[in-house]
Design goal:
Pfam families: UDPGT. It is an enzyme of class 2 (transferase). With about 450 residues, this protein is an alpha/beta fold. It has 18 helices and 15 strands. It has a seven-stranded parallel sheet with strand order 3-2-1-4-5-8-9, sandwiched between helices. The two termini are about 15 Å apart. The structure holds uridine-5'-diphosphate-glucose. Uridine-5'-diphosphate-glucose binds near residues 275, 276, 330 and 349. The site of uridine-5'-diphosphate-glucose (UPG) has 22 residues, from helix 1, helix 13 and helix 14.
């Protein structure tokens, strides 16, 4: 009998594509044939990352002539501004005819996992009688809190007024923990309409795939699955299925730099804010001062032009700090022996990667689900500390002092030590979850069995 075939279709954003590469590896390991959909400009990224696998890669043209979006931009990290997200995401709808044509030409597809940001793929799945799972880059912790808070957020609560939820009385939340437009009293606008379309398609899908681990958020997985549908399946951490590093002639210079730090017995703070967060110039300046004053060794990946950094800063910190403007292998950095802390925006992939590398986090959430992820990191699973905002509010400006103190605490203080101990324990459990007999391994097997039996009925 031919092996089951699964179709994967990530949204065109690095934070959504990268975990799907690892999910493909997890599925291959379970004897599944995998086809991944992408667009021509992203194809090289796919074929490089999946080169040592037999994943079938299909590219379909990305829509052209979308107002405001430069020609050739096929991934959100290349957008001139995140304000173009909705036109970009909405434009993907016109890929539907090509997607359906390619889908129909594949051998029978057992099920498909498509990004929740591609809600129109549900219709394609239904037309061809294929069960669709929506991939959410979020935790069930965030999903449960978002859904359970929606009524309270429609009341007169002020932005930083603390409230709790009857089902989770131990978590203190504020309106500011939720991103716009969801935190508004009367949410509306193009992004809200898009999110409603996404939620509607998800509610009619077969299930939700979550890049998390049952043990990490069992209360929230159980809550979600008892109150909402469709069912959320935690089959992560995907990154623990990552391919071993390939042989290479030369190491990137930042790895050589980290090697040097390790040889001198020095600990390094890794600083990176993902692919989407937009930092103001004022905020950028405070980071430089905070890093300089903290006196720790650091590797900072910036998405801004070097000119904004190059005011003598690099020269002043040259013996202990490295600023990198290129795309880096974040996992290799996090797993480097010298890296002992991560100043992170708490994008969910970064959190999972830090957990698997057993590196404690200094949380500085900026947008999307990041504030809720930061609550999970600091208050729920206690694997990190938080930067301090000037006025103590959730979204306040962070002055250099609000960075300097917690950076030192994370790298050298008792609270950092506790967080490091906790991340070691949780990291070990997370890595074990996808091994034979682990919770995610079992959940994925159950899912495959349910779907293959269903198809054979
Ligand atoms: O130079 C770089 C920069 C990033 N990465 C990788 O890119 C991914 C980034 O993902 P994430 O940390 O989640 O950040 P964002 O790209 O900003 O994530 C978006 O998507 C996430 C998943 O849905 C959300 O949790 C975030 O809030 C949202 O901003 C990670 O795998 C990183 O390892 C690299 O390997 N090299």
């Amino acid at each position: 009998m031919a092996s089951p075939r699964v179709v994967l279709f990530p949204f065109m954003s690095k934070g959504h594509i990268i975990p799907i590469f690892d999910l493909a590896r997890l599925l291959l390991r379970s004897g599944i044939s995998v086809t991944v959909f992408t667009t021509p400009a992203s194809r090289p990224f796919f074929s490089d990352s999946l080169s040592n696998t037999n994943v079938n890669i299909v590219d379909i043209p990305f829509p052209q002539n979308i107002e405001g979006i430069p020609v050739g931009v096929e991934s959100t990290d290349k957008l001139p501004s995140m304000s173009l997200f909705v036109p970009f995401a909405s434009a993907t709808k016109s890929m539907k005819p090509n997607f359906e044509q390619a889908l129909a030409s594949l051998s029978p597809v057992t099920f498909m996992i498509t990004d929740s940001f591609l809600p129109w793929t549900l219709d394609s799945a239904n037309k061809l009688g294929i069960p669709r799972f929506a991939y959410y880059g979020m935790t069930t912790f965030s999903l449960s809190l978002m859904r359970s808070s929606s009524d309270l957020l429609r009341t007169e609560l002020s932005d930083d007024e603390v409230f709790t939820l009857p089902d989770f009385p131990w978590i203190k939340l504020t309106r500011n923990d939720f991103d716009s437009p969801f935190r508004e009293r009367e949410p509306k606008g193009p992004f809200f309409d898009f999110a409603m379309e996404e939620a509607m398609a998800t509610s009619k899908s077969y299930g939700l795939i979550v890049n998390s681990i049952y043990e990490l958020e069992s209360v929230y997985v159980d809550h979600f699955n008892s109150k909402f549908s469709p069912k959320a399946w935690c089959v992560g951490p995907f990154c623990a299925a990552t391919a071993p590093l390939q042989q290479r002639l030369e190491k990137p210079s930042y790895i050589n730099w980290l090697d040097g730090m390790l040889e001198q017995g020095k600990q390094v703070l890794y600083v990176a804010f993902g692919t989407q967060a937009e930092l103001s110039s004022e905020q950028f300046k405070e980071i430089k001062i905070g890093l300089e004053k903290s006196e720790v060794n650091f590797l900072w990946v910036v998405r801004k032009s070097i000119d904004e950094v190059d005011d003598g800063f690099e020269n002043r910190v040259k013996n202990r700090g490295l600023v990198v403007t290129e795309w880096v292998d974040q996992r290799e950095i996090l797993n480097h022996g010298s890296v002992q802390g991560f100043l992170s925006h708490c994008g969910w992939n970064s959190v999972v990667e830090s957990i698997c590398a057993k590196v404690p986090i200094l949380a500085w959430p900026m947008m999307a689900d990041q504030h809720l992820n930061a609550r999970m990191v600091v208050e729920e699973i206690k694997i990190g500390l938080k930067v301090e905002t000037r006025d103590g509010s959730v979204r306040g400006f962070v002055k250099c002092e609000g960075l300097e103190k917690p950076i030192r605490e994370l790298m050298e203080g008792d609270k950092g030590k506790e967080a490091r101990k906790k991340v070691n324990e949780i990291g070990e459990a997370a890595i074990n979850a996808i091994k034979e007999g682990g919770s995610s391994w079992q959940t994925l097997n159950d899912l495959i069995l349910e779907l293959t039996t269903r198809r054979n009925v």
